[in-house]
Design goal:
Family: Belongs to the major facilitator superfamily. Sugar transporter (TC 2.A.1.1) family.
Shape: globular
Keywords: Membrane, Transmembrane, Transmembrane helix, Transport
Membrane topology: Multi-pass membrane protein
Number of helices: 25
Helix content: over 70%
Pfam families: Sugar_tr (PF00083)
Protein name: Major facilitator superfamily (MFS) profile domain-containing protein
CATH class of the largest domain: Mainly Alpha
Number of strands: 0
CATH superfamily of the largest domain: MFS general substrate transporter like domains
Order of helices and strands: HHHHHHHHHHHHHHHHHHHHHHHHH
Length: 510
């Protein structure tokens, strides 16, 4: 009897074992991506030595340290370049071929990239590492768009927040795996670092084997392909019940609503006066995503801890703390998001990161006079990750979804993702050069960037929590612009809201 009740409860709330199995299969690309992106941190010195030795074999002369640092920075940054390309084609693949096929393309690209990263040492070709890094970046751009969309479209409205949270947890947990496997006692040593880079073959290979047997997104089948029969069959599979009429009705209602609202194109987004402020916010916050100092901590922490005075082994162990912190605080951040305003959390996180960046710079300046400061450096680095998880990364995607109306959300997100990838590429390439030139003072740059961003958010970004787009837009657009340039369905919502408000006022007056 208890088993029957549990089954019925799962069917009602959507968390059936079939849905969770499909979601797990879809999200296998996420740990593959996150692991690969962060896996260069631990074996950085061995990869530099490999590049150095390879160039000597070819040219019979050793390159300068600056050249090696520049090449390694480029290697890390190329993932951002690939991600830009991936993000530009992600929606095209998802809309024309389907969410599932887009994920499989991402996974196949990732598998190819990881094999190149792993085999580059055997082939004595650091260029293979560069190509592999670009391909894994393409996987990042496609996978981080297609996989969450696929899983969310499979879920009931009440499940969407938790489904998105699981995606974030998959990402942060993958950082921990990459850092632990990067210990010298495991694969983070001179003999086995190439195996460390090849480990995501497991995630990508497993996904390529089992995802083809999963159903396509019902929303895609109905709204893009107009195939009610296949959409019904897919829903029956993931809901684990035959009666899915309510689910189909919800999709039809969504289809009718979206058909009354024309999609805002990329070009129109820049021309629309009402959407100009959300666009500027998306660009600034997107560029801030990596230049806030988080990329320096997540991707170069081993080198930073060594410069702070820790030995190689201790630096590896300290680095694993960054992944654990990232995972833990991400869980806490989701609860804070429901309690505090978006703007408040973003400012809190940004100001905290700016202050911590200044402390890191000061500890590096005075570390020779006070060796114990290296431990302060570790603690403050972990605090940067905590502030980032509470503010910039937690709020970024939520506030964007609330700043743009439904018709402009796709284009708005594309701009934001593109800016975030530009930020990733430029930061990862420039940061090693900054560190070699500015040394201990490098983190003062991040203090300045966070200070400027905090001021921008304070004066330019509106609070969006529990507000419709029309209500938010009134804080910067006049009534005439709202009337002329607001999408049709949004005008209807605005009119309904105003009518309701007037009715309430009249009732009170009576």
């Amino acid at each position: 009897m208890d088993q029957t009740n549990k089954k019925e409860e799962a069917q009602q709330n959507g968390w059936t074992w079939k849905f969770m199995s499909v979601m797990f299969c879809a999200y296998l690309v996420i740990p593959g991506i996150s692991y690969t992106i962060s896996s260069l941190n631990a074996p950085a010195e061995y990869i530099k030595s490999f590049i150095n030795a390879t160039k000597y074999e070819r040219d019979h002369s050793y390159p300068s340290k600056d050249e090696i640092d520049s090449l390694f920075g480029l290697l890390v940054a190329l993932a951002g370049l690939g991600a830009m390309a991936g993000s530009l084609v992600a929606s095209l693949l998802s809309d024309n071929l389907g969410r599932k096929i887009a994920i499989l393309i991402a996974s196949l690209t990732g598998l190819t990239g990881v094999l190149l990263l792993s085999l580059g040492r055997t082939a004595s070709s650091f260029e293979m590492l560069f190509v592999g890094r670009v391909l894994t970046g393409v996987t990042l751009g496609i996978g981080l768009s297609a996989a969450p969309a696929y899983a969310v479209e499979m879920s009931l409205p009440s499940m969407k927040g938790n489904v998105a949270l699981i995606n974030q947890l998959f990402q942060s947990f993958s950082f921990i795996i990459a850092q632990v496997v990067g210990y010298m006692e495991l694969l983070g040593n001179e003999e086995q670092w190439h195996l460390l880079l090849g480990l995501p073959v497991i995630f990508f290979g497993l996904q390529l084997l089992i995802l083809p047997f999963c159903p396509e997104s019902p929303r895609y089948l109905l709204m893009k392909k107009n195939d009610v029969a296949k959409a019904t069959k897919a829903l029956q599979t993931i809901r684990n019940r035959k009666n899915v009429e309510k689910d189909i009705d919800m999709l039809h209602a969504e289809l009718r609503e979206s058909s009354t609202e024309a999609e805002v194109s990329f070009v129109q987004l820049f021309k629309n006066k009402v959407l100009r402020r959300p666009l500027v916010i998306a660009i600034v916050l997107g560029l801030h995503q990596n230049w806030c100092s988080i990329a320096a901590i997540l991707f170069f922490s081993t080198e930073l801890f060594q410069k702070a005075g820790l030995d190689d082994r201790s630096s590896r162990y300290a680095t694993s703390g960054t992944g654990i912190t990232f995972f833990t605080v991400n869980v806490v951040a989701m609860f804070l998001l429901s309690r505090f305003g978006r703007k408040t959390l973003f400012q809190f996180g940004t100001i905290g990161m700016g202050m911590c960046s200044a402390v890191i710079a000061l500890t590096m300046v005075f570390q020779d006079d006070a060796p114990a400061l290296k431990y302060v450096n570790i603690v403050v680095s972990l605090l940067i990750i905590a502030f980032y998880s509470i503010g910039p990364i937690c709020v970024f995607w939520v506030i964007l979804s609330e700043l743009f109306p439904h018709s402009a959300r796709g284009s708005g997100f594309s701009v934001a993702i593109l800016c975030a990838m530009i930020s990733f590429f430029s930061h990862c390439y420039i940061f090693p050069l900054l560190l070699s030139k500015l040394h201990s003072y490098t983190f003062f740059v991040f203090t300045g960037i966070n200070a400027v961003t905090a001021l921008f958010v304070h004066f330019y970004v509106p609070e969006t929590k529990n507000k419709s787009f029309a209500e938010i837009a009134k804080s910067w657009a006049n009534a005439e612009d709202l009337e002329n340039q607001l999408p049709l369905s949004q005008k209807c919502h605005t009119g309904s809201s105003n009518a309701h408000a007037n009715a309430v006022v009249e009732t009170k007056q009576q």
